[in-house]
From TrEMBL:
The organism of origin for this protein: Curvularia kusanoi
Domain spans labelled Glycoside hydrolase family: 768-872
Full protein name: Beta-galactosidase
Region entry Disordered, spans: 303-323
Gene3D superfamilies, per database record: Galactose-binding domain-like, Glycosidases, Immunoglobulins
Glycoside hydrolase family 2 immunoglobulin-like beta-sandwich domain ranges (all copies): 242-355
Keyword field: Glycosidase, Hydrolase, Signal
Length: 876
């Protein structure tokens, strides 16, 4: 009999029962109850202040002796001694309970102080980091109430931070607890020794130096934070590891390692058992009856120590996890219980999946034996106008749109993502290359991770793998990107050290690294499991071909993929003439080079890239000519803040995205969709057909289609029918002369009619057409509605050049406009502004319901001389 059948008595006997647990108990899901531990969000009701001058005399160098011990659980060698004297604090007013923080800003986490700021367009400021005020010292304060029972029972009290930018250091009740410098990793701090009954003051300091990143890093506690309370004997932080060594249609073997931590002084004898359930994807909870059980092991754990126990079982007729759309992302959840003398001390849940990954040097990735070409994108961690502050719905929307394009894989360039990003990938069925570092020993910018690398790389890497290794979506670990030392002996030795660590922590997945220069004769290439090529595979710039063949012949037993490809750049809806006849062209300011250095735009014909890069078409050709290559991770799926190549001196966000910063699709979206979703009937035509100053001028027309043949019509008259050649990925009518009216395209596939598309020459702007991504949102103060506005003519067609100034307003109901955007990389209007110009006819407002609100929220968009538009969003 499982202890769980005694649920009622156990519940009554528990000293600490959370509200959430009571609610769960009320719904009586009899199995898989979480007992003995409480994990509550501590995101709300913080006070915050940013300082541009150091307000406290502290620095990482001063704090380091008290922070370094946080690395100890992850170090294989010598541990850091915790100093016997208390850390700085008694002289820091911000950490004192008595400090009056009422004048500070009231904020909820996740929080990015910089994203709401002004853009700095001064001449000496580069757009590389996005022009937002991310530098400085930030202090956060919050009151935590801890019950007498918790203290009396000697519970362990932890602060779990999913990510804080950067060099986070925490104090409780004036005493220095510890910290974690790398801003993209999650970490746990033990508050127990400093906690007391009643009110406790938690203070967190973050420190963001200039030149700390190559892109926009964000600033502040930008991910979720949790307070975890557990009995002294509990499953350790990220303390489970599940593997599925053998899988057949009839059964899958499951191996589980559980690390049990005992923070009490006395040794404890406990039983550890685990039940396995199917996971309900939406609620992330166990569903139905247990499908397998790892029977109890008895374990004696000495005081103040950790001990691991292994167990195994089998799941009959396993429902496999596999990438959408051809496979289904089924998941399971392991519910581990630690009990003593029949009383549950802790319950710990580990979602996981059952699937095989094969790394085939001649075919690429096979999931569950089925070849899956990698149609991937790289993405930075920011969420457009919301900045780096993590938001579940914003992340989900990003992945939904990528999936609509046929994107089946994500690279977390160049750092650990929010944990929820991986949960979304698990649930939605995308493969993930989980990446940890952008620098190793040598700097890319002065204050980047190279400063921390010698002391922290092992701890960061092991903690990252332990956090993420149970996610079925992760098919590969990336230990780095475009390292300065990639081609020399230092790089080889570092790669070996890091890869060995990964193999120790998770031998089931292959390791890769993004190499933009290291060639087939380098030590790094010989060392690494998977050859990861940034741009060099397909051939950079005007190079006719690249290095796929050389790597494949040198390493016939290694899989190869493009860890980074394309880097095509464009401004949505902006077309620049003349158009190159090349398949791929290096962007410049001259005729046919696609750039407009006066207005800082790059042509959306989707043919232009920086000198190291290539158009999608060229990448596709090289992938097709080298079919052993597993696929590509395009730079980038979404535009991001910072790196506005080639206009770093004048813009603030990137031109690389297939989808712009606001979430509007560039033409390129359809070029990828045509290749990645060959069974979806679609055709897309560019440019738009409203060119008052181009009458009689050559205006090339390009068509992206999943069909294989197309005929173009101009005002009903055929401009010619074309078949796609073997290495053609678009159909081009480069000699079309512009005349107003209608262009349309009809496409065929295998001789049958397939899809069509058209554009009409539009009239003057007349109205605003307002739409929303979802008519209903949660009234939890976090869920978001994305409200899009198109400037339309009298017939309702988008006016492609419209840049009317639009004002957004919540005219009724319990909602607020959080930010606005339009996808223009040059736009200097702060993100929270309620007024924003349309860019190429479109603008966006992000709307949130007030916390705890319900009812209809009416959002209106107005612009001078145009009929206003409205949309209703219901919060529930
Ligand atoms: C507090 O003490 C630390 C050394 O313990 C010192 O570095 C720092 O400058 C002091 N801060 C203030 C505000 O006096
Ligand atoms: C555990 O031992 C330490 C050091 O001997 C002591 O300070 C602490 O109070 C003990 N904890 C408990 C819960 O007894
Ligand atoms: C326990 O499991 C881990 C991870 O699967 C493995 O590395 C280790 O060797 C196992 N230990 C024992 C004693 O079987
Ligand atoms: C379990 O029972 C044993 C023997 O009766 C006792 O020594 C031990 O303290 C009990 N453990 C707990 C956690 O109550
Ligand atoms: C390796 O490359 C780095 C970065 O260019 C350089 O600083 C370092 O000196 C090189 N090391 C060796 C051993 O050549
Ligand atoms: C087009 O390709 C040719 C041949 O590779 C090259 O010389 C020319 O510079 C290319 N044009 C652009 C704009 O890249
Ligand atoms: C940008 O500005 C820097 C420094 O002022 C200058 O060196 C560089 O040439 C400029 N780049 C462009 C593309 O104008
Ligand atoms: C376009 O016109 C030019 C000049 O008339 C000609 O050289 C070229 O072959 C034409 N291209 C196509 C694709 O018809
Ligand atoms: C205008 O709004 C309607 C929904 O109200 C939508 O179906 C249509 O696509 C929109 N048109 C444009 C051009 O955005």
């Amino acid at each position: 009999m499982s202890f769980l059948s005694k649920c009622g008595t156990v519940l009554a006997g528990l000293l600490l029962v959370s509200k959430m647990q009571s609610e769960a108990a009320a719904t009586m899901r009899p199995r898989a109850e979480v007992l003995g531990r409480e994990r509550v969000s501590v995101n709300d009701d913080w006070r915050f202040q940013r300082f541009t001058e150091n307000p406290d005399g502290l620095s990482y160098d001063i704090l380091k002796p008290w922070i370094l011990p946080a690395a100890n659980p992850y170090l294989s060698g010598t541990k850091h001694e915790k100093p016997s004297e208390p850390g700085p604090g008694s002289n820091i007013t911000f950490v004192q309970s008595g400090f009056d923080d009422k004048a500070w800003d009231a904020v909820d986490l996740p929080h990015d102080w910089a994203a709401t700021g002004e853009f700095d367009f001064s001449e000496d400021v580069s757009g590389g980091t996005g022009r937002l005020p991310f530098t400085g010292i930030g202090w956060y304060r919050k009151s935590l109430t801890i019950s007498e029972e918790t203290i009396q029972a000697g519970k362990s009290i932890y602060l779990d931070v999913d990510g804080a930018m950067a060099y986070a250091t925490a104090w409780l009740n004036g005493e220095l607890v510890g910290g974690w410098p790398y801003p993209y990793n999650s970490f746990r701090l033990d508050l127990t020794p400093y906690a007391k009954t009643g009110d406790n003051v938690l203070a967190i300091r973050v420190d963001n130096a200039p030149e700390s990143a190559r892109w926009y890093p964000g600033a502040g506690i930008y991910r979720n934070t949790w307070l975890v309370t557990a009995n002294p004997v509990h499953v350790g932080y990220h303390g489970t590891y599940i593997t599925t060594p053998t899988i057949s249609a009839e059964q899958a073997s499951i191996q589980l390692k559980v690390e049990v931590e005992n923070t009490g002084n006395a040794s404890q004898t406990v039983q550890v058992e685990t039940e396995i359930f199917e996971l309900d994807s939406a609620s992330r909870k166990a569903t139905g009856q247990a499908v397998a059980k790892i029977s109890a092991s008895t374990l004696s754990v000495s005081g103040n120590s950790k001990q691991s126990v292994n167990g195994s079982t089998t799941v009959a007729n396993p429902k496999l996890w596999g990438p959408a759309p051809k496979q289904t992302p089924n998941e399971y959840i392991a519910v581990t219980t630690i009990s003593s003398n029949g009383t549950a001390l802790d319950t710990y849940e580990t979602p996981f999946g059952i699937r095989t990954v094969t790394y085939d040097p001649n075919q690429g990735i096979l999931i569950n034996g089925q070849h899956v070409p990698v149609y991937g994108t790289c993405n930075h961690h920011d969420l457009g106008s919301l900045g780096a502050a993590f938001n579940y719905r914003a992340a989900e929307r990003q992945i939904e749109m990528l999936q609509e394009m046929g994107n089946n894989a994500l690279r977390t360039s160049h750092n650990p993502p929010a944990p929820e990003w991986l949960e979304l990938a698990d649930k939605m069925g995308l493969m993930v290359m989980d990446e940890i570092f952008d620098t190793w020993n040598y700097a890319k910018v002065d204050n980047d991770f190279h400063l921390l690398f010698p002391e922290w790389s092992e701890a960061d890497l092991r903690s990252f793998i332990r956090r993420d290794r149970n996610h079925p979506s992760i098919i590969s670990w990336s230990i780095g990107n475009e390292l300065a030392e990639q081609s020399n002996a230092t790089g080889t030795a570092t790669a070996k050290r890091l890869q060995d660590i990964v193999h120790e922590e998770d031998p089931t997945k292959h390791v890769t690294v993004g190499m933009n220069n290291a060639g087939p004769t380098t030590g790094l290439a010989a060392e690494i499991d998977i050859i990861g090529l940034n741009y060099q595979g397909e051939g950079k710039g005007n190079a006719a071909s690249g290095s796929f063949a050389a790597f494949h012949s040198k390493f016939p037993d290694k899989m190869i993929w493009s860890t980074e490809s394309a880097s095509t750049i464009s401004s949505r809806g902006v077309y620049i003439f003349p158009v190159t006849s090349n398949k791929s062209a290096i962007v410049g300011g001259g005729p046919g080079e696609g750039g407009d250095p006066i207005n800082n735009h790059v042509s959306a014909y989707e043919l232009y890239a920086p000198e190291w890069a290539a158009s999608p078409d060229k990448v596709f050709e090289q992938q097709d000519r080298h079919p052993y290559v597993a696929g590509e991770f395009v730079w980038t799926g979404w535009d991001y803040i910072g790196e506005p190549t080639p206009y770093d001196n004048s813009s603030r966000s990137s031109y690389f995205g297939i989808i712009d910063l606001a979430g509007f699709k560039k033409d390129r979206f359809y070029l990828y969709q045509a290749r990645w979703r060959p069974d979806l009937p679609m055709a897309h035509i560019l440019p738009h057909w409203t060119w008052p100053d181009r009458e009689g001028k050559v205006t090339p027309v390009h068509v992206f289609t999943s069909g294989d043949e197309a005929e173009l019509f101009i005002n009903g008259k055929s401009a010619g029918r074309q078949k796609r050649g073997q290495y053609d990925y678009r159909l081009r009518w480069d000699n079309v002369t512009y005349t107003p009216g209608e262009i349309s395209v009809k496409t065929w596939k295998n001789g049958a009619e397939w899809a069509s598309a058209s554009h009409r020459t539009v009239g003057a702007a007349a109205a605003l057409n307002v739409t929303v991504d979802r008519a209903k949102i949660d009234g939890d103060g976090k869920d978001l509605a994305f409200v899009s506005v198109a400037v339309v003519d009298e017939k309702g067609d988008t006016v492609p050049a419209a840049d009317n100034e639009i004002t957004f307003e919540v005219v009724s109901g319990p909602g607020e406009i959080v930010t606005t955007d339009n996808g223009d990389p040059r736009d200097g209007t702060p993100f929270p502004s309620k007024t924003r110009k349309a860019f190429s006819g479109l603008a966006l407002a992000i709307v949130r319901a007030e916390k705890g609100a319900s009812g209809e929220i009416v959002v209106e968009a107005k612009a001078e001389g145009l009929v206003a538009g409205k949309v209703t969003v219901t919060a529930a």
